[in-house]
Amino acid sequence: MKILFLLFPLILLLVQGAAGNAVVCRRLRGFCSRRSCPYGTRFIGRCAGGYVCCRR
């Protein structure tokens, strides 16, 4: 039962990291856009705060 207290914070960290951020987007050679990707670009992921990650 004590192991659950150790695993719970680890699971929360993994879920939070899966949400995505601007650093990961830039590493994928993309950029963050407000609502949707502009014409001529494609969706490759999510940035924080409702932004989407796009790439040409």
In short:
With 56 residues, the chain is of the alpha+beta class. Helix content is 41%, strand content 21%.
Features:
alpha+beta, 56 residues, 3-stranded antiparallel beta sheet
The topology string of helices and strands comes to: HHEEE
Radius of gyration: 15 Å
If helices are DSSP runs of H or I spanning 4 or more residues, what is the number of helices? 2
Taking pLDDT < 50 over at least 5 consecutive residues as the criterion, the unreliable ranges are: none
Question: Structural class per helix/strand content?
Answer: alpha+beta
The portion of residues forming beta strands comes to 15-25%
Count of beta strands: 3
Straight-line distance between termini: 49 Å
Largest sheet: 3 strands, antiparallel
Shape estimate: elongated
Q: Reading side by side through the largest sheet, how are the strands ordered?
A: 1-3-2
**Overall pLDDT score:** 81
Q: What percent of residues adopt helix (DSSP H or I)?
A: 40-55%
Domain Beta-defensin-like: 23-55
Protein name: Beta-defensin-like domain-containing protein
Signal peptide: 1-20
InterPro entries: Defensin_beta-like (IPR001855)
Structure, described:
The protein has 56 residues and is α+β, with helices and mostly antiparallel strands. It is 41% helix and 21% strand. It has helices spanning 2-18, 22-27; strands at residues 31-33, 42-46, 52-55. The protein has a three-stranded antiparallel sheet with strand order 1-3-2. A hairpin with a 5-residue loop joins strand 2 (42-46) and strand 3 (52-55). This is Beta-defensin-like domain-containing protein. Residues 23-55 form the Beta-defensin-like domain.
